[in-house]
Automatic annotation (TrEMBL):
GO biological process entries: chromosome segregation; protein maturation
Keyword Iron belongs to the record: no
One Pfam family this sequence matches: FeS_assembly_P
Keyword set, alphabetical order: Chromosome partition
Residues in MIP18 family-like domain copies: 52-122
Entry similarity comment: Belongs to the MIP18 family.
Record bears the keyword DNA-binding: no
Gene Ontology, cellular component aspect: intracellular protein-containing complex; iron-sulfur cluster assembly complex
PANTHER family per UniProt: CYTOSOLIC IRON-SULFUR ASSEMBLY COMPONENT 2B, CYTOSOLIC IRON-SULFUR ASSEMBLY COMPONENT 2B-RELATED
Protein name stated in the entry: MIP18 family-like domain-containing protein
Signal peptide, first to last residue: none
Membrane-spanning segments: none
Matches recorded under InterPro entries: FSCA_dom_sf (IPR034904), MIP18 (IPR039796), MIP18-like (IPR002744)
Native organism: Pisolithus tinctorius Marx 270
Species classification: Eukaryota, Fungi, Dikarya, Basidiomycota, Agaricomycotina
Length: 172
């Protein structure tokens, strides 16, 4: 992990959107079908969630190569988040088409959301179409339950992931 894929990234200013705290508490599983499903058919039990709230959860994740957030590098934005029928799709844009950190960035987004959102949500993480030379392979890795579980069992990868997530939720 010593190779830098984008030595001189463009840094953008943070948006004026607020960094509010999510009312959702963490579930321990990364996957919806691993948790006994509650009856979500009663709409009065369901907390609504919007694009801005999901963005607030992921915007301050640290980039694995640079001392900047995913928001500052424009890797994520609220406009790249789609929510519907308990499915949250997050599209992210690597800073360069050959970024070797894309899988780690996507994994960071997945883990952050699965730790913060109720288990009723299914999360789909995707690279923005046309933004990465290995787009299909990265998308397959990020949305394959067994591959994600195997990645999270790797101590070195997990340590790097936790460093990326250490700044998640910060308002600086």
């Amino acid at each position: 992990m010593n190779e830098i894929f984008n030595a001189n990234p463009t840094i953008y200013t943070k948006s004026k959107r607020s960094l509010r705290k999510s009312p959702f508490e963490t579930g321990q599983s990364l996957w919806v079908d691993d948790i006994e499903q509650q009856d979500w058919s009663d709409a009065s039990n369901v907390e609504p969630i919007d694009q801005d709230e999901v963005f607030d959860l992921i915007r301050s994740i640290a980039d694995p190569e640079h001392p900047n957030s995913l928001e500052e590098l424009r890797v994520v934005s609220a406009e790249q988040i789609d929510i519907g029928n308990n499915l949250i799709t997050v599209e992210f844009t690597p800073t360069v088409p050959h970024c070797g950190m894309s899988t780690l960035i996507g994994l960071s987004i997945r883990v952050r959301l699965m730790r913060c959102l109720p288990p009723r949500f299914k999360v789909d993480i995707r690279v923005k179409p046309g933004s990465h030379q290995s787009e299909l392979a990265v998308n397959k890795q990020l949305n394959d339950k067994e591959r994600v579980a195997a990645a999270l069992e790797n101590p070195a990868l997990l340590e790097t992931l936790e460093k990326c997530l250490a700044t998640a939720g910060s308002q600086e």
